[in-house]
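W.,

You were right to be curious about this one. When I first looked at the sequence I had no strong expectations either way, so I just let the prediction run and decided to look at it fresh. Below is the sequence, 169 residues in total, followed by the output.
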Amino acid sequence: MAWKDGCDIKVTSSSSFYIQAIVKDAANDVEWSIIGVHLSCSEQVRSAQFQEISVMMEQNQGGIAILGDFNSITTPEEKDGGGDTPLSSMTAFNLFIGDNDLVDLGMIGRQYTWSNRRAGNELIQERLDRVLVNAELLQSFCQPTVLRLAENGSDHAPLLLDTTPWMEK
């Protein structure tokens, strides 16, 4: 995670798969929580991680953004190439999103955030990275926007969460 000047970030907890912090945004005079994640490729481990994130969300009040590599997709349309993603994996992810009343902010840019970087019929692309927010965060900002940036040597594209896209910078 990286942030701009004018944001005061205080890491409150972390583990092998997440970093949780409080963000004090001076431009908007808003305080909110952010949870950066890199979830497991294992469906069973990821399910336990979803539960842990849900508990963290219950313990926080106010706006929350969860962002990063979820290693899961919500629909078959979020994948191109390779075999089918198990329905159970997509269902678990969608239940996590729904049970926690989260909204996917979508993104501006290319559709996929990960690629195995192979050619031809061996190419697999997926939207594994995203920004999910709760209603309180949406109420705190006019129109938060997510930009998909270019990959620079990684197989994942970085995402930029812009909480002040219409404000003069």
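Here's what jumped out at me. DSSP finds three helices and eleven strands in the chain. And, maybe more interesting for your project: The domain at 7-162 is CATH 3.60.10.10 (Deoxyribonuclease I; Chain A).

Coffee later to discuss?

I.
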